[in-house]
Amino acid sequence: xxxxxxxxxxxxxxxxxxxxxxxxxxxxxxxxxxxxxxxxxxxxxxxxxxxxxxxxxxxxxxxxxxxxxxxxxxxxxxxxxxxxxxxxxxxxxxxxxxxxxxxxxxx
Length: 107
What we know:
Blueprint: H1 3-39, H2 42-45, H3 47-65, H4 69-92
């Protein structure tokens, strides 16, 4: 009889750990997307989209810190969307004559 409550508690702990791991992975993926956008020159060439991506990342880290992994995952998805958009805009934005292209962007 005492084994059933112990198994229930163990299952809940494992489920919570899986949620935390998934949230951490999503956070790392979103941070990677923001980094790629930064390397493409988004802070200068896609200011609005890049600023949105960074704002969503700040809020995602905050929610992750409060262990609200569901909210953090949703915010990471938004950050990734905006970072990808910023990277795409930065890579396709025209450059001034003679200005160096950002790293990884061919002219």
